[in-house]
Amino acid sequence: MDPLTAAIVAAVAAGAAKVATDVVPDLYRGLKALIKSKFGEQNAVSKAVDEVEADPESAGQKIVLEEKVKKAGADKDADIVAAAKKLLEQLEAQPGGARIMQTVTGNYNAQAADRSTASVNVNVPKEDRPR
Question: Within 13 A of 67's CA, how many CA atoms are on the CB side?
Answer without folding.
Answer: 9
